[in-house]
Amino acid sequence: MTLIPFYKFRTSALVASALLLAMAGNGQGVDFRKMTAEERQAYMARINAASYADRKKMLEQLRIVLPQLPPDSLDPARPAHTFRQRGTGNWIDSAGQFYARSEWGAWTNYDEAKAGAYTLPDPLVLNNGQRVTSAKDWWNKRRPEILEYYRNEVYGKIPDYTPKVTFEVVSTDSSAVSGTAILKKIVGRIDNSSYPSDTPRIEISLYLPKDLKGQVPMMVQVSGAFFAPPEKTASQPAGARELVLAQGWAFATVNTTAIQADNGAGLTKGIIGLVNKGQPRKPEDWGVLAAWSWGLSRAMDYFQTDKAIDGRKIGLQGHSRWGKTALLTAALDQRWAIVFPTSSGAMGASLEKRNYGETIDIVAGTGEYHWMAGNFLKYGGNWSALPVDAHHLIALVAPRPVFITGGTQERWIDTEGEFLACVAAEPVYRLLGKKGLGTTTMPAPDHALVEGEIAFRNHTGGHVDLPNWPAFLQWAKRYFK
Ligand code: GCU
Asked: DSSP character for 350?
């Protein structure tokens, strides 16, 4: 997968997710393959316009007024070494790095010297200023405070009452993955009797290794398609699925597209729209990432009922926006025993108050605001006001093992910022009797820090997850014996 900042390929990124949607073949999707180029363009223009209008309404609800900015080409704040890329009109530098101006006027920074001075809120200090010195106070006092911030201000509130989900195995293939696995396709039907025109659902592909010896651990991969990765051919390297199955573990994918669309236009549909009966969101209502995490928790309900799987050894991996989702999901639902968010970046594992690569402002922009609660828009151009940062999100996973990654060539996701967040989360792991990274020095590329329950690897390369799977599995084996 390539890194697609939304601003960069505003249309093609959406086209890409819509294509996945088409592949999903569910009631929410449109089939892009049956459309002409003009029809596709018109469809995307409608999605963009509806997203823009929805966000505008939310800004009005919150009385947020965006600053008036000069045209970006005339903006004296534009980094001097940037120029327009032919074909896209985006700003890039000679290394091809992407730059954007946020709606609050800030330009992307990749200069370590300008990453800014910031103070990270201490995860072990209560809102009343008292220091947390016992595991008991962490669980009973501090952790609930942090969760409350995330619920109200950042990802939004998962409603107390959500519709019932009934799972059904819709097909079984007993010779999947070159005959090594049994593939079960499972659909979670969401009760939509309160708002029948909306038809979200939960789609799972579950692969069980053929020669099961008792209950097995499992890795779940969350992403945007109801996909069966292609069968491995001789010329293709093994993917995550093959690597996991080779451990004798089960592997499953969960498709987020069928739960909630990945755009602002879809916020009155999907599971969010179903609970709101088609009405727009209130500022604290859940965003798309929280909705996806809800779907994953329901998938977890199902996995707990499958006798072939060891319910205490289920891990979660996701890449990029699904890396953010994986981390959030493990933070909210403690049944996930291990989490592996790869290249999760902004509003995932990388520090938000650090001015490097993608920032809060960009996530609060038209292309991505739907991931978050409406309230999150208040922090555009106002990062220091955010009472939490990525190290809090990581700390919510403690004491469970977490493996964080990024690449050397994806500055947009800020791999260094992820490392710093791991370092800052360490005191919470230590308070709970676990080990963190054990260093404050960024490791050399490809050198995995795997001594403790927080693990980290900066792979050589771009926006991909595969290079980190072998190191992850090696480390995860300690916990999933
Ligand atoms: C964009 C977005 C990132 C996200 C990425 C992806 O680049 O800005 O936050 O992680 O898309 O999901 O691939």
From this structure: B
- pTM of the predicted structure, to 2 decimals: 0.93
Nearest CA to ligand 1 atom 2: 5
| Distance from Cα 13 to the centre of ligand 1, integer Å | 9
Q: Which atom of ligand 1 is nearest to the CA of 463?
A: 13
- How far, in Å, CA of 383 to CA of 29, rounded? 36
Place of tokens 């979670």: 188
SS (H, E, C) 376-412: HHHHCCCHHHCCCCHHHHHHHHCCCCEEEEEECCCHH
CA dist., res. 342 & res. 392, Å (int): 18
Shortest-distance Cα residue to atom 1 of ligand 1: 5
Ligand 1 pocket, residue 291 CB under 6 Å: no
Instruction: Give the pLDDT confidence of 332-354 residue by residue, as tens digits.
Output: 999 999 999 999 999 999 999 99
Q: Which two tokens stand for residue 155?
A: 């990802």
Nearest atom (ligand 1) to Cα of 362: 8
Centroid of ligand 1 to alpha carbon of 307 (angstroms): 36
Phi-psi region of 63 (alpha: psi -120 to 50; beta: other; left: phi over 0): left
In the numeric block, the tokens 């491995």 are attached to 232
pLDDT tens for each residue of 411-454: 999 999 999 999 999 999 999 999 999 999 999 999 999 999 99
The residues annotated with a catalytic role in the active site are 320, 463
Q: Is 3 in the pocket of ligand 1 (CB under 6 A)?
A: yes
Protein residue with its CA nearest to atom 12 in ligand 1: 321
How far is the C-alpha of 313 from the C-alpha of 453, rounded, in Å? Answer: 15
